[in-house]
Amino acid sequence: MSAEATNPEAHPEARPELRRRGRTRLDLRRLGRAALLGPTSRDRLPDAIGHVAEAHRAHHPDADLSLLRRAYLLAETSHRGQMRKSGEPYITHPLAVTLILAELGAETTTLTASLLHDTVEDTEVTLDQVRAEFGDEVCFIVDGVTKVEKIDYGAAAEPETFRKMLVATGNDVRVMSIKLADRLHNMRTLGVMRPEKQARIAKVTRDVLIPLAERLGVQALKTELEDLVFAILHPEEYESTRALIAAHAGERDPLPAIADSVRAVLRDAGIAAEVLVRPRHFVSVHRIARTRGELRGSDFGRILVLVGENADCYGVLGELHTCFTPVVSEFKDFIATPKFNLYQSLHTAVATPEGYVAEVIVRTRQMHRVAEAGVVALGNPYVTATPDTAADPDEERVDPTRPGWLSRLLDWQQSAPDPDTFWSVLREELAQDREITVFRADGGTLGLPAGASCIDAAYAQHGEAAHGCIGARVNGRLASLSSPLSDGDTVQLLLAQDASSGPAAEWLDHARTPAARIAISSWLESHPDRAMSTTSAARAPLSVVGARGGGGNAVADLPDATVRLAGCCTPVPPDAVAGFLVRGGAVTVHRIHCAAVAQMRAVGRTSVAVHWRATADCRVTLLAESFGRPHLLADLTEAIAREGVEVVSATVEPPVEQRVRHSYTLQLPDATGLPALMRAMRDVPGVYDVRRA
Predict the structure, then answer these.
(1) Exposure string for 509-523, b = 16+ CB within 10 A, e = fewer
(2) How big is the chain by its Cα radius of gyration, in Å?
(3) Cα four-point dihedral sign 31, 261, 316, 340
(4) Phi and psi at residue 425, to the nearest 5°
(5) CA 49 – CA 96 distance, rounded (Å)
(6) Residue 648 banded pLDDT, cuts 50, 70, 90
(7) What is the pLDDT averaged over residues 629-637?
(8) How confident is the model at residue 402 (pLDDT cuts 50, 70, 90)?
(9) Catalytic residue chosen out of the listed positions 122, 207, 253, 653
(10) Closest alpha carbon to 649 in 496, 506, 543, 494
(11) Burial 604-619 (b: 16+ CB within 10 A, else e)
């Protein structure tokens, strides 16, 4: 390669004032689509680093290209003599990866590390040399994408390499940006590999890299990776989809005419907007064909409307829904409620007078940049340290853009030392394609996968302390630990004070997050005796009966009649009451609002006037709802005794989903002490409700 080719400053098109007369910017989507539709030339990139410099300056006009030149010189000399399996000089690979990132708008540090990303792994260059020449930041990123030695890890090399990259991504998301671009270029040139190796690489791409691209919001890379994987793993379906797209290319496409109508509507409304027709990629067409059957011309693409401000998005939406017939079921507002991968847009669909239904996406230009490039569009999210505020080199780099799913992943991977466990659980975690946000009682938030339960929230908030979780309140109402959570729920987790409490084996049936499943499984393995006891058969209700019996302090206006306080409502002074004569000449006393009163009157029971004696003592039955834990019955009876109340009888029902119901018949020395007694019982840990029977 010539010296001129290694110098980006030598190209007139790299200078901003001459860029318009230089080469046009490369369209990453168009190039990827062309590669799928037909063979393309595999000649080396013209002018070597020139295309990278041009693409970089298009996004960053004031970028200093001298760093890129030095990185290219080191990469070119260190890889000199190495060839790819396709027969190309190896330097074409880091150049192609860097060009992909430059087209997405990556900043200079990312591009520098991209040019060097294989030097430490495949050449004699060391990390110390990279650090000395380009600084700690570039060195950290290069180290993050460098594979671990297979000679040291054997079959575990691949999962351990991904573990290393993910941990590095937790400190710098640019590590994964380079890995995704690296995999994209490798997938583009995968045809030289053996079919079985193509399939193995494509499956890892499908199970790990594509979900990671989705979570990081890099849609431009994700969609092309999906198409390349589709072509390898599902060749027959891919060929049928390819034929479907080719057949549509020869037909009249209604979308350009619909786009013209949209432009006219927005122009008349005075809304400045750019209206584009975006063809669907192969996998998208395949999915639409499976759900809709026979496709119409408007199904092969979507209309994209780009505006300047957020408010203009809703203005466009109003005009579209006024001038066209909206398909209400297709409307989604991802501006007010962004996706967990930074994505923001308005989605709608409108029907035209000709009967076509066109999907329309409305977003600002900044939203569009983020939708295409995700975290790459964020530039450098880290504040450059000054001499006065130099960061501690041993301190963890904190990424302010770190998403919740990545934080969860970094937490649970520490508990999965076995590479096989890590690899299988990683795929399960990444298979969760939606995320919800729930609010904690203290005002914080938790990011959880869709379908997560209160058990997952407990381990996300409290770690191993969640072993003692005995219940939760969701939106202020009591909920079992197995209850699934929805986006926007507020969850308050209740923990037992007994340190010996542990999870039940049934929790694994409701845990969705790897952190919860690993923690529960580890506890059950270390406590086999406790694990067996949690699945034992339900016990019969426990009853405790006191020595005292007798009636209450109600008096009936019927001489010599036996008076009984009804167990269904347990009236106490000064409740308004009603009495009824029953078999045997006894009078039962109910609270006036008890449902049994209406039943007594309906069957014609004789009403008897009753009143309370002057004495203050009374008998009452209370129901206590609680979460099961050791020593709960003892703590409740102790709380009752502290209030000076005598227990006449008590019944404890078998636990159901960790919830226990207690029934107490109590003799109070003074009816006015009932509210204080009920408060004391509610204050017992684990008790969430106390009420009169």
Answers:
(1) ebbbbbbbbbbbbeb
(2) 35
(3) negative
(4) -70, -35
(5) 10
(6) confident
(7) 77
(8) low
(9) 122
(10) 543
(11) ebeebebebeeeeebb
Say what the pLDDT of residue 47 is.
60
Catalytic residue among 4, 9, 27, 121: 121
**Alpha-helical runs (H) found in 365-403:** 365-373
**Are the CB atoms for 458 and 469 separated by under 8 Å?**
yes
CA distances from 380 to 109, 110, 132, 400, 689 (A): 8, 8, 21, 11, 52
Q: Does the annotation count 121 as an active-site position?
A: yes
Backbone angles phi, psi at 74, to 5 degrees: -65, -45
> 446: closest CA among 433, 463, 431?
463
Q: Do residues 648 and 619 lie in contact, with contact meaning Cβ atoms separated by under 8 Å?
A: yes
With beta carbons less than 8 A apart as the criterion, state whether 324 and 340 touch: no
Burial class (CB in 10 A: 0-12, 13-18, 19+), 30: exposed
Q: Which helix (H) or strand (E) holds 687?
A: strand 687-692
| pLDDT tens digit sequence for 147-167 | 877 666 667 778 888 888 888
- Extract the tokens encoding 532: 């067996």
Helix, strand, coil percentages in the chain from 3-state DSSP, rounded to 5: 50, 15, 35
In angstroms, the first-to-last Cα distance of the chain is 90
Q: What is the pLDDT of residue 44?
A: 39
Q: In the beta sheet, which residues pair with residue 624?
A: 662, 690
- CB-based contact 627:688 (threshold 8 Å): yes
Residue 326 neighbours by CB under 8 Å, 6+ apart: 320, 348, 349, 350, 351
Write down the pLDDT at residue 210: 92
Residue 226's pLDDT band (cuts 50, 70, 90) = very high
Query: pTM score, two decimals?
Result: 0.66
pLDDT in tens, 433-467: 677 888 888 878 888 888 889 998 988 888 888 88
Q: Are 277 and 259 a contacting pair, CB within 8 Å?
A: yes
Instruction: Respond yes or no: is residue 411 known to be catalytic.
Output: no
In sequence order, what DSSP letters do the residues of 567-615 get, joined into one string?
A: TTT---TT--EEEEE-GGG-EEEEETT-HHHHHHHHTTPEEE-EEE-S-
CA distance 463 to 179: 31
Residue 397: alpha-carbon gap to chain centroid: 23
Instruction: Give the C-alpha separation, 322 to 6, whole Å.
Output: 56
Helix, coil or strand: residue 552: coil
Residue positions counted in the chain: 693
- What's the pLDDT band for 481 if we cut at 50, 70, 90? confident
- In sequence order, which residues have a C-beta less than 8 Å from that of residue 536 and are 6 or more positions away? none
Task: Band the pLDDT of 264: cuts 50, 70, 90.
Answer: very high
